[in-house]
Amino acid sequence: MLGEGQVRLHGETGTAPVTIVPPSVFLNGNDRADLVVNVDSLTEMSRSVAEAYWHRIRAGASAFLSINHERNAFTFRDLLDATGHAARTSRTPYWLRRGYVEELVQFD
Predict the structure, then answer these.
(1) Residue 23: which H helix or E strand, with range?
(2) Global pTM value
(3) Is residue 37 part of a domain?
(4) What is the C-alpha to C-alpha distance for residues 85 and 104, in angstroms, rounded to an integer?
(5) CB–CB of 23/30 below 8 Å?
């Protein structure tokens, strides 16, 4: 469990291993991350917005964890297949929510 000293919100001073930022800061930034996590939203965005996130994630992360359902117009797998930029991937059912898939992507 993370304590409050382990999480920093955008605008707060200090350092913490977990940082939460608003979309504009993430999309327009150039920070690097060990892991970017998206739960229950990537496939609910428009395809163009999801592609912008995916482009930024590929450019700035060592790994990406997606936990999303597959009942929308596109899936996370569709984004991944369209770009082919991953060294290793894993795909398993997300056991906490029926119909969801957990996908871990590790970049080169």
Answers:
(1) helix 23-28
(2) 0.85
(3) no
(4) 13
(5) no
Neighbours of 103 (CB within 10 A): 20
| Model pLDDT for residues 53-81, shown as the tens digit of each residue | 999 999 999 999 999 998 889 999 898 88
CB 61 within 8 A of CB 105: no
Q: In the β-sheet with 61-69, what is the strand arrangement from edge to edge?
A: 33-39, 61-69, 100-106, 88-93
Q: Which domain holds residue 86?
A: 44-97
Distance CA(14)–CA(8), nearest Å, equals: 8
In a domain, residue 83? The reply is yes
Q: In this structure, is residue 58 part of a structural domain?
A: yes
Report if residue 5 sits inside a domain: no
State the amino acid at position 47 in one-letter form. Answer: R
Question: What total number of domains does the chain contain?
Answer: 1
Three-class SS of 37-89: EEECCHHHCCHHHHHHHHHHHHHHEEEEEEEEECCCCCCHHHHHHHHCCCCEE
